[in-house]
């Protein structure tokens, strides 16, 4: 897995606080943002305003979660949730059919489940409460929900910046984010590799939402596929690694890049911890095609030129399909009627 890595290459670093600067500063930021997302689809983001103190408490509580006795973690196992929330042991989640060697705890927006009924679309099954280890680790719930709400605010600010950078209208993607976007979060532990563990921390993939924000520790292992080969997203304190997801790629007709990435299990034997936040569109949305100005449209020949692209139809249906594929055990237990 470690062949042809360009360790000297670096992802761009963007400071989102420049959006609050004067008109020239703002325009320069938007230009850099557009360029970075077009060329590579990955960058470091600083200046986001999330307090360092909150960040360190969220990191600490995530480690405490993984340090809980196995029996406590299994009480909140995803197999207990029809809504694909909760804990999974290493090896249970699949990428392209192969097990990822990471243990993880997933949460989404905290909402009531929608009652079953004849008019309810299948993707409405995704909505529901999270699972929480409230007895064993009561701080987990408030801290992760605080993190989710802070990250949603930063991510929506960035979606607005992309819309402004592409079509001059910050609100152009508002309808698919407003109200209740699909906020997915994972806290993750990649076990340090000993002799027998697989190298696949998470297999090569694109993210399916609008934007992803990853808070990583100092161990390393996240890699980005570029024309020059795999590039390390070397840890940079105070930043998130941000990348474009398939919905933003689609809305921009491929002008913005949803780039393939992966995590190689830490070979040092030291565990790696990360916290990933994914902003998706509302589950009831359809993805709009942004009306790019001619000089940008000329460069964009992406997925939107395929009228059969299933992503165009319903965001929720597509997301549900992804969950069913990644978690076959949950799919069989609760959603067997949807499996072909
Ligand atoms: O843990 C990371 O650094 C990235 C994880 C990732 O790419 C994902 O969960 O989609
Ligand atoms: Fe990813």
Automatic annotation (TrEMBL):
Catalyzed chemical reaction(s): L-arginine + 2-oxoglutarate + O2 = guanidine + L-glutamate 5-semialdehyde + succinate + CO2; 2-oxoglutarate + O2 + 2 H(+) = ethene + 3 CO2 + H2O
Keywords in alphabetical order: Dioxygenase, Ethylene biosynthesis, Iron, Metal-binding, Oxidoreductase
Taxonomic superkingdom: Bacteria
UniProt entry tagged with the keyword Metal-binding: yes
The keyword Cell membrane appears for this protein: no
GO terms of molecular function: dioxygenase activity
Domain Fe2OG dioxygenase: 180-281
Cofactor: Fe(2+)
Top-tier EC class: oxidoreductase
EC number: 1.13.12.19, 1.14.20.7
Pathway: Alkene biosynthesis; ethylene biosynthesis via 2-oxoglutarate
Record family assignment: Belongs to the iron/ascorbate-dependent oxidoreductase family.
Name this protein carries in UniProt: 2-oxoglutarate-dependent ethylene/succinate-forming enzyme
Record organism: Teichococcus globiformis
Lineage: Bacteria, Pseudomonadati, Pseudomonadota, Alphaproteobacteria, Acetobacterales
